[in-house]
Prior knowledge:
This protein is an all-alpha fold. The protein has helices at residues 9-26, 28-31, 83-86, 88-99, 106-119, 124-133, 144-157, 166-174, 181-191, 199-216, 218-221, 226-238, 244-256, 264-267, and strands spanning 58-60, 68-70. Strands 1-2 form a two-stranded antiparallel sheet. Helix 5 (106-119) crosses helix 7, helix 9 (181-191) runs antiparallel to helix 10 (199-216) and helix 9 packs across helix 12.
Amino acid sequence: YQRRVHGDYNQKKQAMLVVYKGLARKLPLFIGLPSANIQLSDRKKYREVCYPSHYNEFRRTPVLRGKPKYAFIDPLHFDFKHEGATGGIELYKNRIKDSQEYDIPLKMMAYVLYNCALKGIYDPELFEAFEEHMPMASSKTLTPRMAFGGVYAYYKSNCGSIEKLKYFLEPLLRGIDEVHVTEINDLGEAFLVNTQLPKSHFRNLLEAYYKPIILKNWNAEVKHFQGNIHRLALNFFKCESYDEQIWTKIIIEVMRRKSLANDRSLKKLSPKQVKTGNTTPIK
């Protein structure tokens, strides 16, 4: 750049472009250019539409000349940001009820119920209408991600019947290898407000199905993410699951850190706030 600084504007522009591209290859996170080492969610421009990060991977193809191409988008995503203009998920729900079109695939049922639960809309009539058509509904395109949405809605809403939960829980457990730790944490937090199922329901799922996934993805999805560590600790503690292997890894990670960015979650585990007698494993 110093060699061309005395040239005309085009020469200066070309020189700065060379420097910018060179830095972008070495420092993609600092410069903000797309790189094969980062995901689109790391860029503020795409952060809103690419959530969660497990469904926003992109690839480069020769046809696009190096430009990013979406490979995966969250199938449960709903644009709550512009619900003032679109009417939101409640308008979508009301249209289904007005038209009486309840005979839809299971994945669409999960989509509607999940986003209603996220927005705090609990409609027992919608659950009852969907449950009448669940035995005949198509499940060919019900992926583990969509099944997760159905289970999450049943846990958090307390509206559906326990017997019908199997239409979403069984596909989720069959595709458990595709489940991420963030989704397990979401299910745990939704289950904590559930009043229909006992704690042993989620505790058995943790020990039989979710624990292997947590251990397998520990380094990639938990070790370097303090929020997931805190959420796992709270979910295991409130469900009264004291698995020695999981708790040992959680405590080691907390002790390994020189500082905690947010310790409010860990304060909830204080023995002073625990009224039950099962405090020995936490201490």
